[in-house]
Amino acid sequence: MIDFKNIHIGQIIEKRVHETNIDMNRICTFLKSTPEEVEQMYTSESIDSYTLLRWSKLLEYDFFRVYSQHILLFSSVHKEKRSEKNKGKNSSSPLPQFRKNIYTKEIIEFILESVNSGEKTKQDIINIYHIPKTTLYKWFSKYNANPQRAKD
């Protein structure tokens, strides 16, 4: 499972390369890199966005989603402060405005595992990540494989 709190993108890329069994020559050709540079990327905690985009295309995996999930889980704590600060202001930003959070299967599994392992309670999840109570309970009824441990 991916540690969404402490992302080491090089290790995640390396795991995906092993899953897909892509040859090093193909990787080097696609990325226009040497084998040494590729190995160095595997040890890097962060990679520039253009290179990450190339990896995403080559390995057919959205590595940017890992960062999106981090934002969903760990930046939502300050959401209330931001909305208080911006109340009354009209947003005229030319950037796209996203209406709601999209929870991936990995996020749902992470949340369910946190509760099932006893690391967090359902109320902790609601308070920390601002996931609506009804959404959380739907996840437990739909996805939870271990309902005995998740009761509280």
List the helices and strands and how they pair.
Layout lengths: L8 H12 L3 H8 L3 H8 L6 H11 L4 H11 L4 H7 L19 H12 L5 H8 L3 H11 L9
* Overall pLDDT level: 82
Query: How many angstroms separate the termini?
Result: 25 Å
How many beta-strand segments?
0
Q: How big a fraction of the residues is strand?
A: under 5%
Low-confidence stretches: none
Shape: elongated
Alpha carbon gyration radius: 19 Å
What does this structure look like?
This protein is mostly helical. Among the domains are: 55 residues, 434 Repressor (Amino-terminal Domain) (Orthogonal Bundle), CATH 1.10.260; 39 residues. 58% of the residues lie in helices and 0% in strands. It contains 9 helices and no strands. The relative contact order is 0.11. The mean pLDDT is 82.
Outline of the structure:
With 152 residues, the chain is an all-alpha fold. It is built from nine helices and no strands. The model has no long low-confidence stretch (mean pLDDT 82).
List keywords for this structure.
434 Repressor (Amino-terminal Domain); 9 helices; mainly alpha; 152 residues
